[in-house]
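Can't paste images in this forum, so I'm doing it all in text. The chain is below; anyone willing to post the predicted structure tokens underneath?
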Amino acid sequence: MKFSILIAHFNNSVFFKDCYQSIVNQTFANWEAIVLDDGSEEHEKLAVQKLIANDPRFQYYENEKNSGVGFTKAKLIELATGEICGFLDPDDALTETAIETAMTHFIKDQSIVLTYSRLMFCDSHLKPQKTNSAAKQILNGNLYFFNAPIIINHFVCFKKAVYEKTEKIDASKKIAEDQDLYLKMYEKGKVKFIDEINYHYRTHSGGISQNDNKKKSYEYWGKVIWEAMQRRGLKKIHGKQIPEQFTNSEEIFRLLDYQNSLLYRLRLKFLTLFS
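Text version of the structure:
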């Protein structure tokens, strides 16, 4: 089985060397890395091209114009030739065994459609700061799972063949395209948590979570959840009516307030342990 590392690049060449090095250091050998640039400045493109030029395992493409992360990630999956895919941001890095660990699970259990792991939050120099303590195995086949709060997170790997059977990533989405992908894959089969740190997430001033996109992300995420409710044919949640039209994210997240209760969490933990 081949693994496709998918990189959506936009003006991030200053951090790309760490990303590149983490890929070539992988213990799993059968991989390809596909870089799709989304309208970066010329010197940014050249810096990335120069770094990967002598390694045929890397492929480089460019969008005709800046098209947004949804379009770029959807296109990356189309370009992938591996059976398993995983997104890696150009300013982040993988641990050396990240791909090998994920592939072991896919080979061992054919029913798995997606894996996810723990991630390490790092500073701008990629120095580890803290891990995501919320990461855990989720209950599979739960119509009311919407990844809110976020549990499925980097490093996410998924079967391309199963992805092709979903509605695919909404190419029009500028933010929360990852949540869109996770929920669509969750609806198609078994999701497996890998209890290891396999991804180093760099926090810096140019990152999405550190700029004004954070508020926009909340709105896009709410719409992604509403769309999942529609796909699943849900009319009510916890006795409350689901709106027929999406108007705002607050209305959607209020429907999920009950999932924050201690009783609900304990019940879910029990079901997950014995599933």
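The chain has one domain: 3-209. Residues 213-231 form the longest helix (19 residues).
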